[in-house]
């Protein structure tokens, strides 16, 4: 059966940057095995399958796959699918709800032009600590770094999840983050103890003056050696930030830059609301642009 699809570049306003995403429409009747096979065929970090919503008031139900597994939630698929569905519905500005494994995700969408749009979604689950990180010496070895590269200010390696768990690794600057090379001989000991196999490495030093942090994300266990932009990790990062560098009372807008080492610069918007020293709300935002459309037999 021929099924429509589109590809988009997400967390960017220009083609061939950001994080590529495939969105398969008309996905009714596809089983999990076929969805996984289609995802491997596209060979992108993630592929979204759009299904009818269970709740009549919601826009659609999404199933999200990496080349290696299905995810209950992910950031760039949510932003990209929301932008595409808004475009299909006629564009403009509208709110919609997408059903994902983590629960309903409320998105505010707006067109920028015929091919580009922006989406912002509130976190369905506030981030929580997910366990104890491995020893910094082991983490450094798994990333090809010296242990002296790991840690800055009050930040230390820690595990957080806002739907997907990550090990967050602070490093001292762009030089150190640029030298990260996953070493699979040490990877399991460093990153699979309690939080899957994903490492989110970040520094305060940035390439762009308007960015708050420079980040890289490695997830070989999900079939993603490196990801150009990771909204689900940015969601978890909100909890870590409030733990180690608490923000003042009120609302805050941050930009996390990612993908520069891959030649796919991305800008992930992270919004936080702080009350009495606690994170009480968060959101992820970004642009997306349509790159291609067509049909796939599945």
Can you put this structure into words, describing what you see?
The protein has an eight-stranded mixed beta barrel. By secondary structure, the chain is an alpha+beta fold. It contains six helices and 17 strands. It is globular, with a radius of gyration of 18 Å. It has helices at 32-42, 75-88, 136-142, 174-178, 184-191, 231-244; strands at 2-10, 19-24, 46-51, 60-65, 70-71, 93-100, 103-111, 116-122, 128-129, 158-161, 165-170, 199-203, 213-219, 224-227, 250-258, 266-275, 278-297. The chain folds into two domains: 2-122 and 287-297, Diaminopimelate Epimerase, Chain A, domain 1, CATH 3.10.310.10; 128-285, Diaminopimelate Epimerase, Chain A, domain 1 (Roll). Strand 10 (158-161) and strand 11 (165-170) form a beta hairpin. The model has no long low-confidence stretch (mean pLDDT 96). Helices cover 20% and strands 40% of the residues.
Descriptors for this entry?
2 domains, Diaminopimelate Epimerase, Chain A, domain 1, single chain, 8-stranded mixed β-barrel, 298 residues, alpha+beta
Annotate the secondary structure layout.
Elements: E1 2-10, E2 19-24, H1 32-42, E3 46-51, E4 60-65, E5 70-71, H2 75-88, E6 93-100, E7 103-111, E8 116-122, E9 128-129, H3 136-142, E10 158-161, E11 165-170, H4 174-178, H5 184-191, E12 199-203, E13 213-219, E14 224-227, H6 231-244, E15 250-258, E16 266-275, E17 278-297
Parallel strand pairs: 2-3, 4-6, 11-12, 13-15
Antiparallel strand pairs: 1-2, 1-17, 3-4, 4-5, 6-7, 7-8, 8-17, 9-10, 10-11, 12-13, 13-14, 15-16, 16-17
Helix pairs in contact: 3-5
């Amino acid at each position: 059966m021929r099924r429509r699809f589109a590809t988009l570049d997400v967390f960017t306003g220009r083609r061939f940057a950001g994080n590529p995403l495939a969105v398969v429409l008309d996905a009714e009747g596809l089983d999990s095995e076929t969805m996984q096979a289609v995802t491997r065929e596209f060979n992108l970090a993630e592929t979204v399958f759009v299904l009818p919503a269970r709740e009549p008031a919601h826009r659609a139900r999404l199933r999200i796959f990496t080349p290696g597994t299905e995810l209950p939630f992910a950031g760039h698929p949510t932003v990209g699918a929301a932008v595409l569905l808004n475009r299909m519905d006629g564009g403009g500005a509208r709110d919609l709800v997408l059903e994902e494994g983590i629960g309903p995700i409320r998105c505010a969408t707006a067109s920028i032009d015929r091919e580009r749009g922006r989406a912002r979604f509130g976190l369905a689950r506030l981030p929580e600590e997910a366990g104890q990180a491995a020893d910094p010496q082991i983490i450094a070895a798994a990333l090809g770094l010296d242990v002296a590269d790991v840690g800055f200010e009050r930040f230390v390696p820690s595990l957080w999840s806002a739907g997907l768990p990550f090990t967050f690794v602070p490093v001292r600057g762009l030089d150190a983050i640029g030298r990260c090379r996953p070493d699979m001989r040490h990877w399991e000991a460093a990153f699979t103890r309690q939080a899957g196999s994903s490492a989110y490495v970040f520094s305060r030093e940035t390439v762009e003056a308007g960015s708050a942090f420079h980040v890289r994300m490695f997830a070989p266990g999900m079939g993603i050696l490196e990801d150009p932009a990771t909204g689900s990790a940015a969601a978890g990062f909100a909890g870590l930030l409030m733990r180690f560098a608490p923000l003042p009372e009120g609302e805050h807008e941050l930009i996390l830059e990612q993908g520069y080492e891959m030649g796919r610069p991305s800008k992930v918007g992270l919004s936080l609301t702080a009350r009495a020293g606690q994170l009480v709300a968060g959101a992820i935002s970004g642009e997306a642009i349509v790159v291609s459309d067509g049909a796939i037999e599945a």
